[in-house]
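Tutorial, part two.
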Amino acid sequence: MEKVAFIGLGAMGYPMAGHLARRFPTLVWNRTFEKALRHQEEFGSEAVPLERVAEARVIFTCLPTTREVYEVAEALYPYLREGTYWVDATSGEPEASRRLAERLREKGVTYLDAPVSGGTVGAEAGTLTVMLGGPEEAVERVRPFLAYAKKVVHVGSVGAGHAVKAINNALLAVNLWAAGEGLLALVKQGVSAEKALEVINASSGRSNATENLIPQRVLTRAFPKTFALGLLVKDLGIAMGVLDGEKAPSPLLRLAREVYEMAKRELGPDADHVEALRLLERWGGVEIR
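Running the prediction step on this input gives:
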């Protein structure tokens, strides 16, 4: 059975690599190596030094930004073998990913951008959606290894996956903030947010924000930390790059970025993205509940 490797055992990468380890011989590496050792104990993967990652036929990365992926790729570069596939689940930058693909091609390594959607719940359940950018042959070659995915869509050439992911997260930001504004106004009018959502979620205004994020996190005041506000702002910046590159009219998405930049400054980058609605509550003087 072919060996795989996973680099980056964060909130998403840790369970994703766990699904791989249940089905394939899996090498794992993390900057904090104790986490790799813990993964080895929990899932039966093998914690290895970085250079041994190159033993795998398929290398997965799930890191904060493309910059970290580049750094790891350069460190691994002398050890990489021709015929290796590099599947990058990072929410990265399309243009930088194209440059990395060219760099890896010099070693006979095929790079695919393969960001995911579904959050930590989807990562743990193995039900993530993967948006893949790369050659058709390579996509089909790596598809059987995507053990953490329920849905896999080949969206285009290298960089397309990261572009789709960035726009998707920009839409998440818009939907969340817009729902927060509307609900805040209704609460101030004396309508309970729970009752308002009961109507909205049976009507045309519903979204993942109204169906899941706000009921489970805002109304309960739980605000679990699953996706950092700073990372959402990073993704909004990538989305702006996509929009700028195509000179696409986008007043609403650009305004959303400004709003979330403000929330990041007020709440800090480590706050969960849903906590951005705390800023709305502060401005409005009421809680959404």
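The mean pLDDT is 97. In part three we will examine how such features are distributed along the chain.
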